[in-house]
Design a protein that fits this description.
Helices cover 49% and strands 15% of the residues. It has four helices and three strands; from the N terminus they run αβααββα. The protein has a three-stranded antiparallel beta sheet with strand order 1-3-2.
């Protein structure tokens, strides 16, 4: 690897994660693969294809874990 490439890769590791593999999401949530794909099918997790790979958006994982705001009656 050339030094310029290494510097680019080092910089990229400081960027926040915007997506995860299904395996990573299932491990984070403590659920099985089938349940993970069920959440995608139901629209609770958002899956996108990136270069032929399925990536679950970090925002959809965060939204799934965020409780709904209480109504200010």
């Amino acid at each position: 690897m050339r030094p310029a490439q290494h510097a680019t890769l080092k910089h990229a590791s400081t960027l926040p994660r915007r997506g995860y593999s299904m395996r990573e999401v299932c491990a984070m949530l403590g659920i099985g693969n089938t349940t993970g794909w069920k959440l995608v099918k139901e629209g609770n997790l958002i899956a996108v294809k990136v270069a032929g790979r399925t990536v679950i958006t970090a925002a959809s994982v965060e939204a799934l874990l965020t409780p709904p705001a209480a109504d200010a009656a």
